[in-house]
Please model this.
Amino acid sequence: MMSMILMGGAVRCLLWTAAAASVLILLSSNDVEAQKLQAADARQAMVSVLSAPSPHPSLGEEARVWDRFVGTWDCDYTFFLEDGGVRHSRGELEFGWVLDGRAIQDIWITYSKEAGKERGIGTSVRFFDNKSKMWQVVFISPAYNAVVTVRGGTEGDRIVLRGVDDEDSMLRWSFNDIKPDSFTWRGEKSRDGGKTWKLEEEHHMKRRAAASASSKTARQ
Model:
């Protein structure tokens, strides 16, 4: 009988030890997960601070130039090649206010046509220059080592931005046929000082519904 009592006590001791070990493992696992979440949050901290819910009041009426584009747009990209060919791509365009609403940023995304290939991506930051009374725009595409600076604003019912590329050719980028749910973006170039212009890009945009915007972007 005594041996059975001693054996029962040993079993209970082992069970308590196993239970304690399980709790420690669970707590340790929770700590690891918490650390992972904290690290993930740290990586997203800059993004959350960067975005702004609305334009800064100091922009006044100028904010209306770009505020109407805030959101996600489905893009039908068309590129007119030097050899006369035409290339089509699909993608999306994201617009949102940043830097306490003093600037607006966009992200241009081109979907890959082949599995395993990277998408194309570039971004612009736009801010209103009170000295020149123009919108200054800087576009970058790291994959192509591209940096383009243009400036401009509203001209009639269009938005027109002008600049010079790294070959000293004149650029004219414009937002045309602007409606609440669609617009057309055109990129033109002049190699003769503005005497003639060649249409290089024409992109047709349609606003994406808010519910489908987050789900489709998450799949890219």
Remarks:
- The longest helix spans residues 2-50.
